[in-house]
Specification:
The structure is a single chain. This protein folds into four domains: 48-179, Rossmann fold; 185-255, Helicase, Ruva Protein, domain 3 (Orthogonal Bundle); 267-356, Zinc Finger, Delta Prime, domain 3 (Up-down Bundle); 383-452, DNA polymerase III clamp loader subunits, C-terminal domain (post-AAA+ oligomerization domain-like, Orthogonal Bundle). 48% of the residues lie in helices and 8% in strands. It has helices at residues 33-36, 49-52, 57-63, 80-90, 105-122, 138-149, 163-166, 169-173, 185-197, 210-220, 224-240, 248-255, 267-281, 285-297, 302-317, 324-338, 343-356, 362-375, 437-452; strands at 4-5, 8-9, 70-73, 94-99, 126-131, 153-159, 176-179, 207-208, 245-246. Strands 4-5-6-3-7 form a five-stranded parallel β-sheet. Strands 1-2 form a two-stranded antiparallel sheet. Strands 8-9 form a two-stranded parallel sheet. The longest helix is centred in the N-terminal third of the chain and has 18 residues, at 105-122. The radius of gyration is 30 Å and the shape is extended. It starts with a strand and ends with a helix.
């Protein structure tokens, strides 16, 4: 069998000239490009190297035909269905596919009954592929358990949702969880290149210039199926105008989205990131949303955006709005959970909340001043009454002997020195006058008076 890659064979395969978009392989005529370019072997799948190396479960399932159940978790277009398709071609067992969108409990039980009968009668096992398994109800997932537990079937279940929330624990505990990652830019570019060249793809009928390729790769956001859908539309648009090269103008019209002029590795990456942060710091909600949209449309990693918002929450808002950091952290966790494109809504939520929040940089100034003193050598000895007094002989050294327990005082705070002598009179935290820090300022002042007995 010829060598093939994710959504297409390896480069260098012969490609006939002319013909329709369906390529030369009549078996695939009329099918979408993403279907035509689906690989048939594991060796040439682009990306997911952590799952496809020698001795990995997928390798054993395909090459050694070992019975096992797998849950494939990853964003759309990362190859979950493709890997199931490769398994279906390679295994000697029966291959059955169910869609959780349309199949019910009755369908699942029928598959299990037949799988059990076939195993007993002929010794032939069954591979069951369930797409979008997260859409199965608890009852439907329960129906999978007997077949998985007794190995009547080797389950290959695909999901875009977090399986720890979407799947019942008994099913998850009986399956090996494999996490698929979005394809890197280089991988998506390779998908495009192979689709252009191979006879099952576009068969060399069109080429694509660098800007147009970059545009399609950027819009794909790590989704191989999406980039092939865009490429197919752009190729059709080019050929309809008797063009043999896909330009960025053709690509824009074909996918109905303007190219975003943005270099993720160049100056614009840093310029737009800086503009996003400064807009939120300056409380301009609309400018913040604009820059967020530009970065999202340019294919920026949503985790990078989430990290920047978490940093900003402490750096520019801090205690002026104590809810800012939890909001940013919740957004970061949501990004990890749901991915694109829904994550842009969560990030917009965070951008709006942070831009509207009162601002304070007192936290940054406080830790900066404290670090400055430590680096200047002001790191004196810990006061004796604060030292560890739990080990034998500590009392002889006077450790902890005069420590005053704060909970014994009705106010919950007592006069006592906590800082080393070298910085005992330092005040690092200077509360701001905006938002919740107004209240912190008053409390901070009262506490310092009690601690110092003034």
């Amino acid at each position: 069998m010829e060598q093939e890659g994710l959504f297409g064979p390896a480069a260098g395969s012969p490609a006939p000239s002319g013909g329709s978009l369906a390529g030369a392989d009549q078996e695939y005529e009329g099918q979408p490009l993403a279907v035509r370019m689906r690989p048939r072997t594991l060796d040439d799948v682009i990306g997911q190297g952590h799952l496809l190396g020698p001795g990995t479960p997928l390798r054993r399932l395909v090459e050694e035909d070992q019975p096992m159940s797998l849950v494939l978790w990853g964003p759309p277009g990362t190859g979950k269905t493709t890997l199931a398709y490769v398994v279906s071609r390679a295994t000697e067992r029966r291959f059955v596919e169910l869609s959780a969108v349309t199949a019910g409990v009755k369908d699942v039980r029928e598959v299990m009954d037949r799988a059990r009968r076939e195993l007993v009668r002929t010794g032939t096992g069954t591979v069951l592929f369930v797409d979008e398994v997260h859409r199965f109800s608890k009852t439907q997932q329960d129906a999978l358990l007997p077949g998985v537990e007794n190995r009547w079937v080797s389950l290959v279940a695909a999901t875009t949702e977090n399986p720890f929330f979407a799947l019942i624990s008994p099913l998850l505990s009986r399956s090996l969880l494999l996490t698929l990652e979005p394809l890197a830019k280089e991988g998506i570019e390779e998908v495009v290149r192979r689709a252009l060249e191979h006879e099952r793809g576009l068969a060399g009928q069109v080429s694509i210039d660098d800007d147009a390729c970059e545009h399609l790769v950027r819009l794909a956001g790590g989704d191989a199926r999406r980039v092939l859908t865009y490429l197919e539309a752009a190729a059709a648009a080019a050929l309809s105008n008797a063009d043999t090269t896909i330009t960025v103008e053709i690509a824009e019209k074909a996918v109905d989205r303007a190219a975003v002029r943005y270099d993720r590795d160049g100056d614009q990456h840093y310029d737009i990131t800086s503009a996003l942060i400064k807009s939120i710091r300056g409380s301009d909600v609309d400018a913040g949303l604009h820059y967020l949209a530009r970065m999202a449309e340019a294919g920026e990693d949503p985790r990078f955006l989430a990290r920047r918002l978490v940093i900003l929450a402490s750096e520019d808002i801090g205690l002026a709005d104590p809810s800012a950091l939890p909001t940013a952290m919740a957004a970061a966790q949501a990004v990890q959970l749901i991915g694109w494109p829904e994550a842009q809504i969560t990030l917009a939520h965070a951008v709006i909340a942070l831009a509207l929040a009162p601002k304070s940089n007192s936290v940054v100034k406080a830790i900066g001043a404290a670090v400055g003193d430590v680096r200047a050598g002001l790191a004196g000895a810990v006061p004796p009454h604060l030292r560890d007094a739990h080990y034998s002989g500590a009392k002889k050294l006077g450790h902890g002997s005069s420590y005053a327990y704060a909970h014994d005082d009705p106010r919950g705070v007592v006069q006592q020195q906590y800082a080393p002598d070298s910085v005992a009179d330092k005040q690092y935290y200077e509360p701001g006058a905006r938002g919740a820090e107004r209240d912190y300022a008053e409390r901070y002042s009262r506490l310092r008076q009690i601690l110092r007995g003034s």
